[in-house]
Fold this protein.
Amino acid sequence: MRISLARRPTRPVCACEATVETRRRRVDLRGVALPIVAVALWWALSASHVVKSGLLVSPVDVLRTAYEQAGSGALVRALLASLAREACGFAIGATAGFLLGGALGLSRIAARIVGPSFDTFKQISLFAWIPLISVWFGLGDAAKVVFLSLAALLPVAAHTCDGIHAVPRKYVELANALRYSRLQLIRYVLLPAALPSIFTGLYLALIHSWLATLGAEYLLVAGSGIGNLLIDGSEQFRMDIVLFGIVVVGVTGWALNALARRVERTVLSRLHIANQ
Amino acid sequence: MSAVEPEGLDILHVSKRYGAGDSALVVLDDVSLHVRPGEFVSVLGASGCGKSTLLRLIAGLDAGYSGAIMMGGERVCDTSLERGIVFQDHRLFPWLTAEQNILAALRNAPLSAREKHDVVAEHIALVGLAGFERAYPHQLSGGMAQRVAIARGLVNRPRVLLLDEPFGALDALTRGRLQNELLRIWERERITMILVTHDVDEAIYLGDRVVTMAPRPGRIRRIVDIALPRPRERTDPRFARLRDAILSDFSDATTPLASNPLPVPPADSSGQWRMAW
């Protein structure tokens, strides 16, 4: 971040995220203003009884529901079920994505054979796979994990491959002059140089797979999870449960995001690979 | 100087072209040069005369050439730890410290971890970077980074060190200092050095001989012996005479343009190249 671009290899990293990151060192309370105003408006609207409908619940109802759900253990059960699936799908998808992206990035033959299929595969909306997955794997956890792995696989594979391709030629040349074997080239040059890009992929995979967790729970309805909590709420016209569920989803996503950023920053700075 | 390596380096009728047939671009045309062991040779030329290409061929980074580059009785067709190279950009790995960057060159050296550590420490001291072992490239100045690169080029104790405009990106003061450092190292280690540069003063100041190159196609124009005793003074009148002689070589190609009353056809390639220093 501190160095001029001329002396650094260009890295395929989303620059916008990096700038936000540097600015975020201090906690900026201005970001809280909008939610507070929204909640206040909502409160005022429901308290004034202008809208008389069971579908507009008050923040107090939502808070009460939150208390009940948290107290009865229903929230923890649903959240754990969702997070377990997320972790499982992310781990499988990220590993497979890393291997696939590595193969595509390192091997010209793999790129020739698998590359075009992968590029086509990327264009297919994840949700298009749902019918196929539900037929093959049912509606249970297996199907959901498969769906989540797909969601995690794509960004990791794409960013790993791009990261390896973006390693400056000059480093490869240097490794050649130092008589590095192919394995040494991968281990000591290509992987470290591609690491920031791989991290971007992992980071996106975590976010995508969390979003896909919700999608999977909506579309492959069986078992428990945060998504099922939302569906149950909407089927019973319990808008308090729905709203509470949305808040939980948002906060969880935010926490995952923050965690991923943290890990990324720590690892990269430990390795002295600045994320521009 | 040394009886251990009597053969030196031979460049025999080396040509290099990109592409094939009539459209082929001839980068080097029949270049021949004998480099004595322990000699310091400066290769001087404007941009595009093929001097860097020649150095890459000697390094073994590009095996697609005709003719022969012979070292130790073998034709150069691949890289070797016997030929160290220093690039214009220091080319240090940004994720490694100065020490680790030098160590990275020893990955395939037949030494124990302990020996490697000692050799690295020795070379850090040699380039005057003691105290900066743990610094990362972005924490070093351009000159210091280039010192690390020189140490990395030397750490395998190569017989030849190839320097591709190593000081080209440095400011004048740092460049002068590093030139003296390089001479000191050369005098101490007594290894062969081939330095590619577009700086006439640098070429004369450092080299036992200055090989000037002409472009399109890249070829050797002249080989000038620099018989000045070291340390050399840039203000020495003999230095100035050599500089003038070498510079006049280069301006020869452009004088017809200046004195020629006829309009120069735009397709004439000799009018398109300019001095790069």
User: Anything to note?
Assistant: The beta strands of chain B are 9-18, 25-35, 40-44, 66-71, 74-75, 83-86, 160-164, 192-197, 209-214, 219-225. Chain B touches chain A through 23 residues (CB under 8 Å). Chain B is about 30% helix and 20% strand. The longest strand of chain B covers residues 25-35.
